Amino acid sequence: MLLLNPLLLGATCLVLAILYVYRCVASPLRSLPGPKTSLFSSWILKYHELHANRTRYIHGLHQRYGPVVRIAPNEVSFASLEGVKEIYGSGGSGYDKTEFYNLFTIYGRRTMFSTLNKEDHARRKRVLADRYANTNILKSGSLDGIRERSRRFVKRCSKSVGGTVDLFAFTIMLLTDEEIMKQVTFDDSLQNRLIQYYNPTLHGIIGSVLSLFAKPRETPLADDLVISATAKTSPEQFTLLSRMQDKNYDMAQIDMAAECLDHMAAGIDTTGDALCFLMWEISQPGSWHVQRRLRDELRKNPEANFDKLPYLDAVVSEGLRCFPAIPMSLPRYVPAGGRTIDGYFVPGGTIVSCQAYSAHRIDEAVFPQPETFNPDRWLQEAGELDRKRLFFAFASGGRGCIGKHLALAEMKILLRDVYSRFATLPDSSMAAGDMEMSDQLISSQPRGKKCLLRLVPVDGDETLEIVDMSEHAVRYD
Ligand code: HEM
Fold first, then answer.
1. What domains can be seen in the chain, in order of their start residue?
2. Do the beta carbons of residue 418 and residue 119 sit within 8 Å?
């Protein structure tokens, strides 16, 4: 009946529109800094998400509006220490995760990463945390595996001398089976999964047609691996599986498989991408002095433990500051009743987040010249505490990265093995935009999906002699 009467239909639409505008204008978020459009609609934000550009778009807003910015009618981004502490640290593990993390359920099960509330998370973390403690990572079982894979990586580097090496594909070598890892790493399901998140009903209806244009996430080889691995009994003592199979925890096999797949994905993309962006950066002529100094430290201390090398540590920290493998917002719900965050009252149910990319750049008192790659900043005593507190590459609080120590060990061992033997240069075939950051669902990767480097062996006898890389250099614009 309503549809048959255009006047009535028009009047209803007008009333609904007025109500919508009124609700937006009366929103408690109206007093927060941010573009006016964000008070009424999230379409601009969604547009950038679909174009793999959310992180940079939000960073642009922070540069314009400061450390607190409204990015959608119900969403606020923070880039300050106060924001980080309140959202991720209050009450131990911070605010609860939003339904965004539903996209990371596996086989229909929630893993530690995709649990939403504190209780579920704490229960799962009790099972798994012990395996990732630094004391366990430093035990020989885990380290032997990392060293062995790093050796294989270096062997491949040696074979590539005279040609180029694609670091983006190459870092997959850090992990066991290449084909499996390719499936997990070269995932291209951003658009498909965003539609699933924003409109599950629509996704249910058009899912099969949509998959022709926007690929869904599929990892059949990895699925087979984790399903068969978790069916085995008596795994090695230091493994995650041995812990999950402990009868005290009563975990179903499907939950163990989901957890294993999740940790594989969490560990591969992140560590691989972080290394890829970092090695690309220090291969640029403007950063050759970093390579030289690093090589100097590595060769002067061949017997030192990988975590006792200050310059290596500074290079890794600066790499993760400039190119955090998870640069984007980690969304959380403000608890019922609302909270004051960084001086602004934010009502309960609002989505709030920080993104490492901005937390590492906005406060120039903590990170002066934030766009400059400068490992030396990590060696200065002044401001050390503030730098560490604003360092958000692994997030913080009780839901921060459980794999942090493992990731740092992998990165440092590999960098030591490579840079004590080789100098690296960018390959001339790389185009300017190839290494731009392309947002995926949670991690980021090079837009060109390649990172071509040339490796130049550095003769073992010359010890601290400086390699004149300009001899090998090619023009790179
Ligand atoms: C450079 C490498 C890495 C970076 C930058 C990184 C970063 C992060 C960040 C930012 C989070 C918080 C995500 C959120 O709140 O939504 C996180 C969580 C997590 N990471 Fe990592 N990660 C890295 C490597 C690893 C590795 C090697 C593993 C394990 C093999 C791992 C396993 C996890 C898990 C299981 C969580 C969920 C923790 C929880 O909810 O309690 N990560 N990581």
1. 31-471 (1.10.630.10)
2. no
**Stated length of the chain:** 477
| pLDDT 10s digits, 31-68 | 999 999 999 999 999 999 988 899 999 999 999 999 99
Tell me, in angstroms, the distance from the centre of ligand 1 to residue 113's CA. Answer: 8
Strands 165-166 vs 452-457: parallel, antiparallel or unpaired: antiparallel
Cβ of residue 174 lying under 6 Å from some atom of ligand 1: no
Q: Walk across the sheet containing 332-333 and list its strands.
A: 68-72, 75-78, 351-354, 332-333
What Rg, from alpha-carbon coordinates, does the chain have?
24
Paired sense of beta strands 351-354 and 75-78, if any? parallel
Residue 400 CA: nearest ligand 1 atom is: 12
- CA 179-181-183 angle, to 5 degrees, is 75
Measured CA to CA, the distance from residue 151 to residue 181 in angstroms comes to 18
Q: How far is residue 125's CA from residue 133's CA, in Å, rounded to a whole number? A: 12
3-state helix, strand, coil in the chain (%, to 5): 55, 10, 35
Give the Cα-Cα-Cα angle 172, 176, 179 (nearest 5 degrees). 65
Distance 400 CA to ligand 1 centre (A): 7
- Residue nearest atom 21 of ligand 1, based on CA coordinates: 401
Mutation test residue for ligand 1: of 270, 275, 412, the one with most atoms within 8 Å of CB: 270
This prediction's pTM: 0.89
Confirm or reject: Cβ of 278 under 6 Å from ligand 1: no
pLDDT tens digits for 76-110? 999 999 999 999 999 889 999 999 999 889 899 99
Strands 437-439 and 422-426 turn out to be unpaired
